[in-house]
Amino acid sequence: MEFNTIQDFRHNFTQVYHKSVAPKLESFEQEKNKMKLITRIIWIITVAIIAGLLFLFNFQITQDTLFLVIAPFFLCIGICGWLGKSFEKKLKLAVMPIVMRAFGDFAWVPAGGTIPDIILKMTRLFERFEDKKDDDSFYGTYKGLQINIDETELSYTTRDSEGRRHKHIVFSGVLAQIDFKKPFKGHTIIRTRGLFNSKAYEEVKLEDPEFSKMYFVDANDQIEARYILTTSFMERFKNIKNSFSASQMEASIQDSKILIAIHTTKDLFKLGDLNRPVNDTKQFTELLNEFVSILAIVDELKLNQNIGL
Question: What global pTM score does this model have?
Answer without folding.
Answer: 0.83
